[in-house]
Structures
1.
Amino acid sequence: MEIIRGLINVQEHHRGSVVTVGNFDGIHIGHQTILVGVKNKARELKAPSMLICFEPQPKEFFDVYKAPARLTRFREKIELLTEQGIDYVLCFKFDEKTRATSAERFIQILVEELRVSALFVGDDFSFGQGRGGGFADLLAAGRAHHFPVTNFHTLAYEDLRISSTRIRECLAEGDFKLAEKLLGHPYSIIGKVVYGRQLGRTMSVPTANIQLHRYVAPIAGVFAVETDIRGESITGVANLGVRPTLDEATLKPILEVHLFDFEDDIYGQTVKVIFRHKIREEKKFAGLNELRSAIFADIAEARQFFAKREL
């Protein structure tokens, strides 16, 4: 899959694609249905497939602290889109210029500069300055310029609307089984292992600190996790939060994973942490001794959880 950064980098072979537009946060089963439609139409027309997205996501541009927590960072989204078999991702930088782009100009980009051969959007899609454009505008453009425009209605799972918002609610509730059904894959976070204070080692519970590159995470607390390291699955216990017991409680959330029966040096490596079970909320303890006791209790519960899964 090829990533295209901005309109300036669009080449002739990118034009004529079957296109869909949106955040596609999480690439859940609703998104996957749209992507299947895009790929099927692309095969029918013998054209490439393309997804158009924006970085940062528009709500993050307006207020990074109040924007909904992302299910997937851009890198994670790209990995999932690659698995889905999309040919191109055209990523526009969302800035003041993008914010001021009118609905008419956005349609002009689709028609004249990308020359889309077909367009797929979700039923709640809107675009342009002040969200002034909608499906009716796209449909009119398609009729005028002879390309089909398809509106995918929101899918439901057991009478529940499938959306990134609903999945965030599942994660906040610790319902990882339902989140997995709505996503079509287990909820995970991918990141690079970096050096921390190594405080865990002084308590005999060394942890891998994983960069999140985000101000808000969709989950917080202590979890039983599986960690994919170089294709090997290692179970463990993870804390995702701001470490309120320690002096340097942080603004950005931190993901720390204690891996069971694993001692390899993995600093600098990129790993995937799959969340399987919520143990408890993150809390502030009276001191390190109380924190250490809680960690050992968390480890015991996580080990018990995985032992029961194997039965």
2.
Amino acid sequence: MTETSEQETRYKSPLHQRRAGVILHPTSLPGKCAQGDLGPDACRFADFLNDCGISVWQMLPVGPTHEDRSPYMSLSVDAGNPGLISLELLHQWGWLGEKQLNGSAGPAKKKRCIIEAYQGFLRQNDPEQLQALQQFVAENADWLENYALFTVLRHHFQRLTWNQWPEPYRHREAATIAKAKQQFRSGIDEVCFEQFVFYRQWALLKQYANERQIQMVGDMPIFVAHDSAEVWQHQEYFDLHPDGSPNTVAGVPPDYFSRTGQRWGNPLYRWDRMADDHFKWWIDRFRVALTLYDAVRVDHFRGFEAFWEIDAKEDTAMNGRWVKAPGDALFSILQQSLGELPIIVEDLGTITPDVHALREKFGWPGMKILQFAFDGSEDNPYLPHNHVRKCVVYTGTHDNDTTLSWYEELPDHIRENIIEYLNHPGEPMPWALVECAFRSVADWAIVPMQDLLALGKGHRMNTPGVTENNWRWRFQWDQLPAHLADKVRGMVIQFERDVQS
């Protein structure tokens, strides 16, 4: 990322070409470590997508996670997850010994290996590499120094949330922060190196994918975790009590996923303060995201028109209220600053005409989920005959069960209605729904990797409203049928989603 004026940084949307895509978070990739990473298996996956004719790789947020591994409650909106760093690449670069590649590497071991790689990097004393690190730190100073200090202090205070730290640290008293930067300098430098490595490995993977005409699509949660570097740094932008605890929190009312709604617990924004600063925080956030991705799915877009406000003392999301948000003003300033934004709008759930109007004003595609389509209503917007070109159709997302498991658990009469609607396809589930997605008039059609592998119960990525056993799904290369790529490419070509021809 380079320091440019807001007017000089312009982005062009890749969303206006008919494409096919796959959802797979990098943690779900195969590999020797405890989770997938940005190394050789990620490039191999890009090759697989290329063989399939797939030209969109969508993933979840890639920020550093808390202990529950949820990518939607990150410790930072700008930093990369160090768990995604490839030790194999560190070894190839000559910074890490071969013995460190033996065995699986969980978070603690990976952290030790990255520190060892930093020592190897310093011993190498390569002027070009040292300059590259210094340049990265300088260009990302707006967020990197604060994130590094936050990370070191969080470790020092035994992972307590920042508002439980001693008061001078909690309130970021200038003298205390200056002293901490000196006291913890070596740890701060290690975290900066860690982010340098993540961004370098990410850039190499993105280049590899882009060279194969694959668009990298990220995910931007509307809200941020309370225990995050950004809330600690910019407490004035969040609805907090004087002690730093949330006054109100985010969520959604009762819906398809939960009878009591979802109480996410993120602190809500003080939109008035953000507007006073011309939404600089959001401009910076989008600029960083667009260095990582070719396009961004904006999660919970309806919260930019109105958000569900819950008193932090409430245990569920049932007793909340809708509060207007300044989405129109925000997105107008973002487009003035950054140009045409390549955004996919997550417009699921309780959607009002005002939300649709906000999306349509800026010309962004919404989402259509086929698993939501078959409730018996002819005007269901997710039914394929109600699709429009400017949208992205999915069989399901990371929050849905796999299509095969979903289908198998439906009542018999609904399964029969689906098969009749799909005109009795020759293919079994999930391929019947994958073909339905690819056949849609929607410009983009995206399916989870689990559906390409025809996986059933026990292979979903996340169950909304449930905190245990999420975000852990992985596939293995031996799960890929021999002719899978040929089958997918045939569908991509048949339904004119092949950008390589």
3.
Amino acid sequence: MKYIIEVATSDFSTTASAVEGGADRIELCGNLAEGGTTPSYGTIRQCREAFSVLLYPIIRPRGGDFLYSAAEFEIMLQDVKICQELGCDGVVIGMLNPDGSIATEDCKRLVDAAYPMGVTFHRAFDRCLDPFEAMEQIIAMGCERILTSGQRPAAPDGVDLITKLNQTADNRIIIMPGSGVRAENIKMLATKTGCHEFHSSLRGKLASIMEYVHPGFAGSSESYMNNWINPEDVRMLRQALQQV
């Protein structure tokens, strides 16, 4: 079986590292500390021009919940169109209603606007009321895959639900485990769930190479630590899957 590794990146530099490590697909984000928001136009364009790997920017105008206003939805529509114009391979979306159900009408509008790009439904799914009903709705609206941690903070904790979702999906949609996926648990996830696509952010920090460190901010990690992905961590995911 061919396994697909998707890596969530937060900027051009981490995308370059993920590509170097052999990622099959990039979920391009800004602000991963908030769960990922739509990256800038310049970041999307630069990554598209530099890398041939599959590129799926997240369409999320802010952090927080997945209940969006009419104005926020219009922003999402515009961002989908920008991704299309820039030649992205797909986008990552997700919206909920106040009662925890999928906002099917607005999500379908985003899917239609994205065509012919592919569409992943993100971890808004993990906050929905009924995951099996939601999966059927997401299939009907034309999404390619669902990114899920099994409605738990991390995929290893939600492995039982992920397994049931994948069995129920029966190849009608891809179920992609994500959150907390690492080399030490990806083999277990693949074996138990039967899934063949996996998502990981592999988030790390690297000390800044700034020569001048202002004494008033010497202890500020925000000022002098940068997001980093070790390419070797991506390769280790692949190596672990080769043992399945």
4.
Amino acid sequence: MKRFFNRVYKKIEKETLPKKLKENFRNVDEEKLEKFKRLLEEEFFKGWRGKDNFSKKVFENDLKTQLYLRLFENRYHYIPWINKTVKLKNSNILEIGCGTGSSTVALTEQGAFVTGIDIDESSLNIAKERMKIYGLEADFLSGNCLELFEKVKEKKFDVIIFYASLEHMLYEERIESIKKYFSILSNGSFLIVVEAPNRLWYFDEHTSLLPFFNWLPDRLAFDYTKFSERSNFRELYKEFSDEKFLHFLRRGRGVSFHEFEIALNSKVEKIKVVSYLKQFLVPFSVERRYLNVLRSIYPKISEGFFYPFLNLIIKKQ
């Protein structure tokens, strides 16, 4: 798998990855990586994420993703994109949804000062250990970002990143989080959204692996999970309860430009999207045709709102 990713990103590295970014990559020896692997298996892959809930192939892939592929993706995909607009060195960054710290490593090794927030205590414990083995430092806060707002609102951040997190919030949390955290940015600073599955896209690659899933009302989507072929998903929601419904909603629902209009109290065409990350769509495929349909329906807004995932850099002005 590692060889495969090296081949996939070889061209990206040659053509788009600045040498100065690659020079900052921190390496970890195999002994430390093996120790970290055991920690992941013991501390992260438990409960509903436990090994026994997946096929062997799926579990091994998820383990590799957490071990090194996620960091690989950040280094070669997201960091070069962000750094073109926001110079990461010496930037003060608030990362909402730092998870197990792969993105935190990728940001801090480029010289950023990062405060990471995550609601999952197990993920934060992994993130702290990951930072140690890479010889890096960051501040971490555990909890819901709305509950932590009072702790961070007086701090000055050049960048606030919602990293694969907006889709895991309830609707009211999502609106309030965008609204409040955007309010503490000064003019000229940036709000960045990374990997939020787009509600408008026809296929849900994030949660259910079903077409049109994010178009469905929440309760209908819950009942429809039985048609998903994703393991450790359809089995969890066979019977409805308030607890299971909440768990389902936090697994991930789609996000679209509508939340940004409501939270920022501004028509979407007036929101200053200064950069967006293009997914690699095959020319003339159904994906490309569908993207063009969305663009034709609402040609005045940023094309970034029409890709399968929202990867946006919004500048406050």
